[in-house]
Amino acid sequence: MRGLEGRVVLLTGGGSGVGRAIVERFLDEGARIVVLERDPAKAASLEAIGSGDLSVVTGDVTSYADNERAVAAAVDAFGRLDVFIGNVGLWDFSRALVDLSPTELEAGFRELFAVNVLGYLLGARAAAAALRESRGTVILTLSNASFYPQGGGVLYTATKHAGLGVVRQLAYELAPEIRVNGVAPGGMATNLSGPKSLGLDQQQIKDIPIQDYQEKYSALERVIEPADYVGTYILLASSHDALTVTGTVFDISAAGTPQRPQ
To answer: Could you list the residue ranges forming a coiled coil in this record (predicted)?
Structure first.
């Protein structure tokens, strides 16, 4: 029996990076998946997988109505919802406080917190009733920046520290029916982009030598691919393997204490 056989999963941001790796591996493990994806091209790429166990909803995580539509799509298509995975995020390309104008600081704060924090809260709120019924689980993608400096700039790091607080608080509020946990990957070469308000929406993390940093500064001294991170999500999404785990964020970055790249 596959590890996620019959589990119904709603994932936000499944078109690339860790999200796409989750989709592919979860399907292999027997899950049925609905993806909320904003980018039409990425949505089309997911639909091209052609699996009856995969449905795609085009929408924005910062819209409660779109999150509601995605939850309804999961329940309508598969009869229930067992797992909500909040995975959409923006990176600030390590913009330091003093390098941001006051206008950029305000606008960047609003955009990054809207996507990286509010998007998770809206998704969890929309999914809560269905997850209570199934005694399901919430999994949020965070970052090693939830624990350490130098995983981004001040705005990104603030959002990921906020995400850590969201996991801990929701684990308390939604217990005992719903478990809430987080997964904190490190950097990887994906098309993760930045906020439009900072003019970073056309830049991608894979455009910088992130793989060189991984090999030089991580404890394992190896390049990490998105698929390498998925095992922890499978553990937490299981109906039986993590029943005692809630309020926890797993740091799977293999980075140790970050150092400033030379």
So the answer is: none
The tokens for 248 are: 């926890």
pLDDT at residue 197, as a whole number? 76
How far apart CA 261 and CA 213 sit, in angstroms, is 7
Task: Show the tokens assigned to 127.
Answer: 């999914």
71 within a domain of the structure (yes/no)? yes
Per annotation, catalytic residue among 64, 120, 148, 156: 156
**Which structure tokens are listed for 152?**
């981004």
- Within a domain: residue 164? yes
How many domains does the chain divide into? Answer: 1
Q: What is the mean pLDDT of residues 75-89?
A: 97
**Active-site annotation holds for 64:** no
Exposed (0-12), middle (13-18) or buried (19+): which is 227, by Cβ within 10 Å?
A: middle
pLDDT, mean of residues 211-237: 79
Q: Are strands 137-141 and 83-86 parallel, antiparallel or unpaired?
A: parallel
| Lowest-pLDDT range of 43-52, 87-96, 107-116, 217-226 | 217-226
Question: Is 260 inside any structural domain?
Answer: no
Which tokens is 192 given? Answer: 């993760």
Q: Is the CA virtual torsion 63, 59, 195, 137 positive or negative?
A: positive
Query: In this structure, how many other beta carbons lie within 10 angstroms of the beta carbon of residue 256?
Result: 14
Position 129 scores a pLDDT of 98
> The pTM is what?
0.91
Q: Inform me whether the pLDDT recorded for 218 exceeds 80.
A: no
User: Could you tell me if residue 256 is inside a domain?
Assistant: no
DSSP 8-state code for residue 193: B
Q: What is the CB neighbour count within 10 angstroms for residue 254?
A: 17
